[in-house]
Fold these 2 entries.
Entry 1:
Amino acid sequence: MTDDLQPFKMITPAPSECGCGAPATFTLLSRPGKDLPFVEDEIDTPAGSVPRIATRLTAGDWWGTIRTRWGVGRMTYGIPPGLYAIGTPNAQSEVLVTANYKLTFDLVRRAMAGGDFWILVLNSAAINVWCAAGKGTFGTDELIRSITSAKLDRIVGHRRVIAPQLGAPGIAAHKVKEATGFKVVFGPVRIEDLPVFLAAGKKASPDMRRKRFPLRERVVLIPVELVTAAKWMLLLSIAFFLLSGLGHPAGYWAGAMSSGVMATAAFAGILLGGAILTPILLPWLPGRAFSVKSLPVGMALGAVVVTLFGGDLGGWSGRFEASAWMLIIPALTAFLAMNFTGASTYTSLSGVQKEMRVGLPLQLVGAAAGLMLWITSRFTA
Amino acid sequence: MQRLLYLKDVSTLALDHHRCNGCGTCLKVCPQAVLSIVDKKATIADKDACMECGACAINCKQEALSVRSGVGCANAIINGALNRDSACCC
């Protein structure tokens, strides 16, 4: 690569409307080079040497994917941006634009194995293409800067780059053309369709342009939701377990072992319903709002918890306690389900704002009423 | 499998027919097939499928399309409201 590149620092996006931003400070290896584990060697170009990358993923790459899916180091799993090569590209080879999130980069190199391509990796702050495009980091300015700093005009004879379609919320193709002379061709949504797209003369079928949300994609997103929510559910379980013994007629530990165990089961049920079952069953659940979709799940889990772990429903204490969980479980399940909007591929900002305006107060009232009933049950015979 | 659609009548997507020159770029960048071409002009065919990603508007040279774009993520909206700059959805 060229020598005039500055040491690589991650972009730190300003706190956006969405409130997501990459961690404030971290640095990666300075620039694409031979020292990276996925680089095989270097090829010479009129603009200097370019690292050639492996298209076969190693055990280390897969392990990194699994860790990231479980939320470990997810926000810092980046690679140095810049120009890379797959196979033996020449001046006529296509230039594929992608993000510097390692999961994305791995998908690209695996899907394009066997071909000859230039891979232009933008600095998306180690965020996937679609989310980074929404925030503007995978965007017009970064693409212009990358085309210029990679000296693409000296490496290829044509004047076009192929960007992923889901980069379009950030990339204004006509502005990139104006600034660099390079035409941006939007490829298909899925990198797996790119070889067919190229073979068809860079034409995408309507299906290639559609972002769907199949079961497999919903399932791989569950672990991150689960890890985030599990921390809260664990804390709540401990708190309720310790409080359960207070005021119990048969003594502290007898109370903890009955009502405390029931509370733990309830929070496990909330986690199961909100972070696992609702995402899996999403297309088959009635309603459109995620919190509405979660209601039958929350009610069913509430009934299961009350049936298996509930006390004597003949007495007022047992009745209050059962009612408490029949409110808290659906309310918190709905809250977790609502958070899955961020992982989904089809919800709009206006829609989520509307769902929250109506749903959040109802969830709070439900949970608060449930908590009061539960406290009342502690002091009722 | 049923098609997944989010809330009805919430999208802020708007199209100025007079500005549209029918180039079709918006159809290519939309991941939800919201737009179609009718009589050589773009038209909003399936507004409820719009997820307000903003790809069509930013790529419309004629500035015929407008949308209040953003990320449809409850966690992000909560973090934004609390002024927290923490990791969220993506």
Entry 2:
Amino acid sequence: MNNYDVIVIGGGHAGIEACIASAKMGCKTALFSMNIHTIGRLSCNPSIGGSAKGHLAKEIDALGGVMGVLADKSGIQFKLLNTSKGPAVWSSRSQNDKDLYPLFAQELLLSTQNLTLINSNIKEIIISGNRVKGVLTETDDIIYANCVVLCTGTFLNGILYTGLNGIAGGRINEQSSVSISKNLLNYGFKTGRLKTGTPPRINRNSIDFRKLNAVGGDITPTPFSFRTTNVKNTLTCHQTTTTEQTHDILRKGFNESPMFSGIISGKGPRYCPSIEDKIERFSEKNSHQILLEREGLSTDSVYVNGFSTSLPRYIQEEGLKSIGGLENCIILKYGYAVEYDYFYPNQLTPSLETKSVQGLFFAGQINGTSGYEEAASQGLIAGINAGLKFLGKPPFTLSRAEAYIGVMIDDLINKESEEPYRIFTSLAEYRLLLRQDNVYKRLSQYGFSLGLLSENDIIKLNHREYLSEILVTLAQETKTNPTVINSYLESIGETLITSTTPVNTIAKRQKSSLKALFESNNTHVPFPTDSNLFDKAEIEIKYEGYIQRQLAEIETFRQTESKLIPKNIDYQNIKSLSAEAREKLIKIAPISLGQASRIAGVSSTDLAVLMLYIR
Amino acid sequence: MNSQTTICAQATPPGISGLAVIRLSGKDAFTIADKCFKGKILLKNAPSHTIHYGKFYDSDTLLDTITASVFRAPHSYTGENIIEIGCHGGYVVTNNIISTLIYSGATIALPGEFTQRAFLNGKIDLTQVEAVADIIHSVSKQGSHIAARQLLGGFKKRITAIRQELLSVCALLELELDFSHEDIEFIDKSNLLILLYNTIQTCRDLLNSFSASSVLRDGFRVGLVGFPNAGKSTLFNALLDKKRSIVSPIAGTTRDYIEDSLSLNGISIQLYDTAGLRHDSTDTIEIEGIEFTQKLLETSNLIIIVNDVSVSPVYSLSLYEHLVKLYPESKFCYVQNKIDCVTNIDIHNLNFSSIFISATQDIGIKQLKDFIEKSASENLERISDVLLNTRHSVILSKIISSLEISIQSLENGFSNEYVSIDVRNAIHFLGEITGEFMNEEILNTLFSSFCIGK
């Protein structure tokens, strides 16, 4: 007799999504945390979203996850990034009050039906045969469950470094859990070592703001979640830069940096490098941008974004003080690096269940990813699939053509990355279709079918899609003429029209705006609109050709995706496969030819061999 | 696909010939052959790349004296054990040998199966697979030479070079997006434009050699057109140098046309006689069975307009002008036939060049043949070192249009992610040529053009 249907271990961003999803799906769920007061902490950057990460946060919202709502509630500045680029890469980012975010998260967890929070360390995952049975707590209680979702982040064998001093612990002041790693190694799971770092925090009152540029949020801030009606910017950030002098100071400490001296063996993220990495790698750049982000409205702590470091304390201090505005800064918390275990994610199926142990799911940093959004999306997918597994339903997965979440998970399970995985727009082949503006159209129907979105939610969302479609039709059917529209075209520097032209034809031009076109033309829109709705319609019109071409690409993608590889295929028997491909195919056991094509080490020739073999 | 079987088939063309080669490939090739072959030693003990003389038996009946060439895996065409049996030609002997081999455990090969196995065993890549098909189908010596070069991978190298260049462009575009907050321009827009234009030009150059390639593959296509009674059929026969009294219509076509081939100085010429042009009362020209005749003329490298000079030297001039407009890519020749029927014609008053002939009296035919040969060799000069087939040319056109769209996006001020989608598409198409990108359709196309025994 099980105590719970689903057990989630770890209350980080992955764990939160996992346990809420499972509970909402009607499964009796328990969340185990070492300390329930630290659930939902923003342990690194006090912000949610950013380039491509904003897409993930939105996708979580569209599927019925909670990250967007929590970010909106605790948000103190909202900004849409990459607006100088096309709408496909526009990404939402918020800065958040790091005290409020966890409070809202804990409040939400406590008020979620079917969910129990348990403050306890887990010593062991109990596995029998190839099936998970439950967990063993630090007090040696056995708790049985149908499924277990492991979201323990950097806590597995974590070692913190400031300078050459290493202390065990996941986050600073918290202890790390060694026994689960050992426990799972015994069951044949393979682990690797990764590192990540965090910058120092300084006291706001010690910053000389007169020398710094203020950076504000958007004039009309937009929330992450469709469930949030209104958000406000209540805080400005400040920008400064490092100097040659800073770089010289920091270089002095390189031989005392654990990452440089080789004490930390784990690989660090390429894209979120420490300041010492940046100085080393972009040696021709004599300054790097630093953003000073206050960590909340009721704290004086300021996050020094761009200054992630594990150098010794005295070097950090000297370096910071060489930066404009920080001459007299007081450090509240020094930067540190953390090295931790991760499980090679190719041991997982697309539903994030482990291949070797039924009912055991891994989500978040434990799979080698970096970032709250990456963790949360995995948590959501793992939680959903743990729930589905308990309910006896087939797993839920998203394809690369549907969502950034699909791209990420597909990459994780098929490609071998030696550094923390972070989402990027460049990773998504179909990114012109994976936009923030169409996220609900892409995903909300799934959220509704899974029971994570209510009927009211879906009606509201569908209505918005419908209104945007009406705007597109209206633009097609409305004609405009030179007299009413040319002065507008002139004002934006576009070629004038010479005869009556449909509005959508002009809206296709790069500089024109659909809203302005309707206004100049005195076109009456028979329902209340907002700028987002216009943006949505305009994107459909302006990028129609590109969208059509991507849809055609997706069609080809789906075809190879639907070519299934028989489960009983014996790769040992296909002599003509390369040795590397054979080994990878056996290890990953791809479901389809499409998936096989994305496995690192499987060449096109191997693929052709496979195609000829299975037909 | 079952690589456990041992396959056999005749590798030389069927029919009456002095010698024929039967190929046997698979892991049991030696043991199967040894069941029927009696020589000095057992073939399974013979070293690779040796030839053995002996007798081939169907149980006790001697079928032929043969030579058996031994190729041991993986050093053979297919990468498997191969025995090539050199026997006497003709249907009876070869069929008997093949039946005996099948009785002894071999199975008959499917079309292209030897090559497919060669591919599966990593002996050749896909452009080489295509080159094998091209050599088989090649109608001229030059054609097979170029296909042979392709077999050595030259074409693939060129395509791979273009692909590499586009890949690096794409990488820079992506990098700029990923580091958008750092505000670094990794690739200068004007450089990018130049690069894209250059790549398009390279693809165009390749594509231009396609029509020339097809001349090598299919022959130089010459279409005869003219009004009834201009003497087309007579000229057709005169060019072929044979009396062909009955013309057989090609089945399945709506219009009758006749086709035959001749060889001029080693170049294969495909000659077509089109029917169906008439002058109607209102003096406008109609091309009847329009789609069909059009198709024929479209693919013609040279269009010969046959005019009955005895009616008037300019009688077909409007037809000529009409066709020149319709097919600007083709070469034209205005032929004044029945020159023997007119006595005093002032050729100097004609302001266009024409060739004067008499198809019945064999006047000017040599001159016309010289003209055809000259046109054909001019066409061949445009060929570089690659031989394109239809699949390649279709893909190259797709690549060009993708790159054109990406240039358009750049020029219209769209940001990198819109530029890169079409560059990515172009890269994808290039991969379809080299086999970097693979799908079932491509595989089917590749192996379907083979015949049994290859």
